[in-house]
Amino acid sequence: MNRQERRRKARLREEWEDRRHLQADYECPDCQADTRLVQQHPGLYTLLVFHDETCPSYRAMPPTT
Ligand SMILES: [Zn+2]
């Protein structure tokens, strides 16, 4: 592994660690929602939030199609 490859991997690792804070910082005010951070593409992440079925915040959300 050359220097360029090591730097690229270090940059990706730092980026991933930054994104993991998003997951750790999210808390639903009404339930014990589980979260999962998914990388869609390099540099593009989606935070999935799994609310309890009885969660008022979840129930107030408009339905998705
Ligand atoms: Zn919730």
Describe this structure in words.
There is one protein chain. This protein has 65 residues and is α+β, with helices and mostly antiparallel strands. It has one domain (3-60). 43% of the residues lie in helices and 23% in strands. It has a two-stranded antiparallel ribbon with strand order 1-2. The structure holds zinc ion. Zinc ion binds at residues 28, 30-31, 33, 51-52, 55, 57-58.
Note the topology.
Layout: H1 3-25, E1 34-41, E2 44-50, H2 56-60
Antiparallel strand pairs: 1-2
The structure holds zinc ion (ZN).
Question: Could you estimate the helical fraction of the residues in percent?
Answer: 40-55%
Largest sheet entry: 2 strands, antiparallel
Helix-strand string: HEEH
Radius of gyration: 16 Å
The number of helical elements comes to 2
Number of strands: 2
Strand content is 15-25%
Q: Uncertain runs with pLDDT below 50, 5 residues or more?
A: none
Shape: elongated
- Structural class by secondary-structure content: alpha+beta
User: Averaging pLDDT over every residue, what do you get?
Assistant: 87
Distance from N terminus to C terminus (CA atoms, Å) equals 46 Å
Strand order of the largest sheet: 1-2
Count of domain modules: 1
Bound molecules: zinc ion
